[in-house]
Design goal:
1 helix; globular; about 25% helix
């Protein structure tokens, strides 16, 4: 896993505690997408609510 993904995962845990993949994904690695220069992490918090974090100016994966 690259450092940009690791950074977003660390931030997600820091902000939301325990996180899990969204319903349609099997692992957190599958929860990343990119759009233009943005790295996007979709995940569920402890309550099952879907959250999103975005890192601007991330290199394309």
């Amino acid at each position: 896993m690259d450092s940009n993904k690791a950074e977003l995962l660390k931030k997600a845990v820091s902000l939301h505690g325990k996180i899990e993949p969204t319903r349609t994904r099997n692992s957190l690695e599958e929860c990343f997408t990119t759009e233009d220069s943005k790295l996007i992490l979709w995940f569920n918090d402890e309550t099952g609510t879907t959250k999103v974090l975005v890192k601007e100016d991330a290199p394309q994966i």
